[in-house]
Amino acid sequence: MFDVAVRVSDLVVERGPVAALADISVNIASGRITGLLGPSGSGKSTLMRAIVGVQVVTSGSVTVLGLPAGEAELRSRVGYVTQAPSVYRDLTVRENLSYFQTIVGADPSDVDRVLEAVDLASVHKRLVKTLSGGQESRVSLATALLGKPELLILDEPTVGLDPVLRRDLWGLFHSLADSGLSLLVSSHVMDEASRCHDLLLMREGRLLAHGTESELLTKTSAPDIESAFLSLVDGHAA
Prior knowledge:
Blueprint: E1 4-15, E2 18-29, E3 33-37, H1 44-52, E4 59-64, E5 67-68, E6 78-81, H2 93-104, H3 110-117, H4 133-145, E7 151-154, H5 163-178, E8 182-187, E9 198-203, E10 206-211, H6 213-220, H7 225-237
Parallel strand pairs: 3-8, 3-9, 6-7, 7-8
Antiparallel strand pairs: 1-2, 1-4, 4-5, 9-10
Helix pairs in contact: 3-4, 6-7
């Protein structure tokens, strides 16, 4: 187990004249839920893609579980869930999981484990296209859990979900963290900050702050994390 799951050093990603990420340096702790918070367009997805190793970077480095991001060895050790469901809607839940289980080289019995973990065992025979949006999102999450990854990267996993499903998913995330899994979870919903152990606040490709919720509230003398974020934005602009 690494004390630090991800090390990002002087990371720059440019798209033409625009810096999608501007000199990002941060360490993401192991065995904790790190929330990546910021408005749409702040660079959250770009940073996640860089950590997974699928983003072309201009300069800087990203080390994941002690290896350079994108190394072949990390494919079975890092689970990644994009904003859009990444499963086949014309297959059943179980057929999807069996297909991805073969790809990652997991044991066939792992399918039943992840079905139980995301509470989809009762609908495992249904076509994904017949499921609710929340259930379809959980199928994507289940595929990322195959093979027992050490790091799970979730890009806006609760967007569009009702409060009950959001609560249940966060309960699952905490259970995974309790088992030793490291999670990086992005969101543009500031009230999800209280569900995370650590926070990264981003805006316009820059890292504004990194710390626990209480640390950031103390630093800014703000009553809540949204006010803290605005205070940090104002301070950065000054």
